């Protein structure tokens, strides 16, 4: 019988009563984690060293902690407004960040908030390197005795929905059963702010042993602040958009590269003439590129795309709203076969349109606007979104024929930090072994691209990071860590173009990858390739490669940035106009104080400048009437940076 409670403290007490020994907890990633319940358990266990606790989870999201200086002045008010003063930050994450987790508490994650725990010894030691599809079995291997999860309640009904996270809970229970282990205690916390998603995400309340429905007020769902899209990001997104075929399948990752891709796809569909003008300015020969000819296109979407991605996010919202994502699929292999071979009749088509899904995912994460979109959809539109197990989304096993029919002409777009000239990708960790984020589902998608007919994996990366004199290439000859091995090489692209490596020789790969390297780093790459006997000794870089410079990309896109075709925030912004100006200035300041020499020059120029700053920005940063030497220097620096980044 299911226990129904309204008090989180009572729920924590009941859990500890039901499980008298060590706690081994499984919790979903992202916003499916019940922060308040986990904090209540953490407080009790932290105070009782005789009661060990192990937590198996991923992507533990806390708002950014305000630092000092200008960053702190910007972040503190934004965090209060965006996340809410009552947002329940995860206490175990705060402890991990300071390596202060009690000795009897252990947290294992297979994916971490990007860069957030890079310097935590406790987090780094207890990271588990897993494909997303292997996470459920890894949790089962640890014999969990408790699984906690946030759920949504059906409007005007009694059922519950996994909503934001149908990814691994049910897969974990199956894995526990296969191992012959006892079923863990299942505890659900109902959050009225979670959008209701039906279909395979819906269960009866009796699925859980305990259902907690706390009274309001309810903290906001964690909202990812939408970031500005830079010139390089837009160039990458534009190149990527030309590799998508109408009637195909789309998977995208997270971040500004994905945002730029989604905006480019929307532009391709809604203003095709302007889209082609932007592409022509960026790369006049792109339409004739072999990869575009073979697997992409530039025309609007007549049939539309089917979205199938482990994570549903802001970009998918835009693509649904503008009519790019609209191709429906149904879990009926015979019907999908008839659709594929052109023999589907009117009844088949009617059923497909009535019962089919145009968007499938395993979890979702986005901005407050994204969550509102899901909540405010009509029931008919929301029925076209299916939240499924990760075992169904990230691989073909289990119902391979059906998934092959549904996922035709699939394009898997993911980001990596770095790549090698021979086609390996570095996406999750550094060469000293420290983990930045995690593998997640990236390997799953790359492998699926090689397994599906007509599918392609596209790994996107920025050509460089930093600025001169501290400019570094993200394209290496070799690197001490690999996420995707070179034998799975496929399509790579950055702001300088597309490199098609599938089936190519090592020499062909070196030439293709160096052809999209920043011009400043091409000679060293070619020299290393020749030393390694991977490139003919008499090879000479073609003259057009010298066009691979940031200033050329900036100049090509400048008219379209100026007229709003390529806005700073293509998917909407969580920052006010004043904050957007501040972000540009702070980013400029960070780049121009990255090393001692540039810092001294920038500070000197700021202190010597007598021009007035932006009053609204200075007021937002509480620097309109600075007190003390430190605040006065900050005010001068900020005013100088604001002038340097002022729009024409």
Task: Sum this structure up briefly.
This protein is 39% helix and 13% strand.
Summary tags:
alpha/beta; 26 helices; 648 residues; AcetylCoA_hyd_C; 8-stranded mixed β-sheet; Glutaconate Coenzyme A-transferase; 9-stranded mixed β-sheet; 13% strand; ActCoA_hydro
What this model shows, in words?
This protein is of the alpha/beta class and 648 residues long. The chain folds into three domains: 210 residues, Glutaconate Coenzyme A-transferase, CATH 3.40.1080; 317 residues, Acetyl-CoA hydrolase/transferase C-terminal domain (Glutaconate Coenzyme A-transferase), CATH 3.40.1080; 69 residues, no CATH class. The chain contains 26 helices and 24 strands. Strands 1, 2, 3, 4, 5, 6, 7, 8 and 9 form a nine-stranded mixed β-sheet that branches. Strands 15-13-11-10-16-19-23-24 form an eight-stranded mixed β-sheet, with helices on both faces. Strands 18-17-22 form a three-stranded mixed β-sheet, with no helix packed on it. The longest helix has 16 residues. It comes from Xanthomonas graminis pv. poae.
């Amino acid at each position: 019988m299911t226990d129904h409670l309204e008090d989180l403290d009572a729920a924590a007490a009941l859990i500890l009563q039901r499980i008298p020994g060590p706690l081994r907890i499984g919790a979903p990633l992202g916003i499916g984690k019940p922060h308040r319940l986990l904090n209540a358990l953490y407080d009790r266990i932290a105070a009782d060293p005789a009661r060990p606790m192990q937590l198996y989870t991923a992507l533990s999201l806390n708002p950014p902690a305000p630092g000092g200086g200008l960053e702190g002045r910007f972040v503190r008010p934004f965090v209060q407004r965006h996340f809410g003063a009552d947002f329940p930050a995860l206490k175990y994450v705060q402890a991990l960040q300071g390596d202060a987790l009690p000795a009897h508490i252990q947290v294992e994650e297979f994916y971490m908030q990007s860069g957030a725990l890079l310097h935590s010894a406790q987090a780094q030691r207890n990271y588990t390197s897993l494909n997303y599809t292997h996470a459920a079995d890894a949790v089962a291997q640890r014999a969990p005795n408790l699984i906690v999860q946030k759920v949504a309640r059906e409007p005007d009904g009694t059922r519950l929905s996994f909503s934001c996270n149908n990814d691994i809970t049910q897969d974990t229970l199956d894995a526990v059963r296969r191992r012959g282990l006892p079923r863990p205690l299942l505890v659900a916390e109902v959050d009225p702010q979670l959008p209701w998603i039906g279909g395979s995400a819906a269960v009866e309340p009796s699925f859980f042993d305990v259902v907690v429905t706390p009274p309001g007020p309810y903290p906001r769902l964690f909202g990812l602040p939408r970031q500005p899209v830079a010139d390089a990001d837009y160039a990458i997104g534009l190149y990527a958009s030309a590799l998508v075929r109408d009637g195909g399948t789309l998977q995208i990752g997270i971040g500004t590269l994905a945002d730029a891709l989604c905006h480019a796809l929307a532009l391709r569909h809604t203003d095709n003439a302007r889209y082609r003008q932007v592409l022509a300015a960026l790369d006049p020969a792109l339409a004739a590129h072999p990869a575009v000819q073979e697997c992409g296109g530039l025309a609007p979407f007549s049939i539309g795309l089917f979205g199938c991605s482990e994570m549903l996010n802001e970009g998918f919202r835009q693509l649904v709203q503008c009519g790019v994502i609209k191709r429906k699929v149904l879990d009926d292999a015979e019907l999908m076969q008839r659709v594929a071979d052109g023999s589907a009749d009117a009844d088949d088509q009617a059923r497909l349109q009535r019962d089919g899904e145009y968007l499938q995912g395993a979890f979702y994460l986005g901005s407050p606007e994204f969550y509102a979109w899901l909540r405010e959809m009509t029931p008919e539109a929301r029925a076209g979104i299916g939240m499924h197990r990760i075992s169904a989304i990230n691989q073909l096993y289990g119902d391979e024929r059906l998934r092959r029919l549904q996922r035709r002409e699939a394009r898997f777009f993911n980001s990596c930090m770095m790549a090698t000239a021979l086609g390996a990708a570095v996406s999750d960790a550094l060469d000293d072994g420290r983990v930045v984020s995690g593998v997640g589902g990236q390997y799953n998608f790359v492998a699926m691209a090689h397994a599906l007919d007509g599918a392609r994996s596209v790994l996107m990366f920025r050509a460089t990071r930093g600025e001169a004199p501290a400019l570094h290439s993200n394209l290496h000859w070799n690197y001490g860590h690999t996420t995707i091995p070179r034998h799975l090489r496929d399509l790579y692209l950055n702001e300088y173009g597309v490199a098609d490596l599938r089936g190519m020789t090592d020499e062909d790969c070196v030439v293709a990858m160096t052809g999209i390297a920043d011009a400043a780093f091409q000679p060293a790459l070619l020299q290393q390739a020749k030393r390694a006997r991977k490139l003919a000794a008499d090879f000479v870089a073609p003259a057009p490669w010298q066009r691979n410079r940031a200033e050329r990309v900036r100049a090509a896109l400048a008219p379209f940035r100026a007229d709003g075709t390529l806005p700073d925030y293509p998917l909407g912004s969580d920052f006010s106009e004043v904050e957007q100006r501040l972000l540009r200035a702070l980013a400029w300041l960070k780049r121009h104080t990255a090393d001692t020499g540039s810092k001294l020059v920038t500070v000197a120029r700021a202190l010597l400048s007598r021009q007035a700053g932006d009053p609204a920005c200075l007021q937002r940063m509480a620097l309109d009437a600075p007190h003390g030497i430190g605040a006065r220097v900050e005010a001068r620096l900020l005013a100088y940076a604001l002038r340097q980044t002022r729009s024409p």
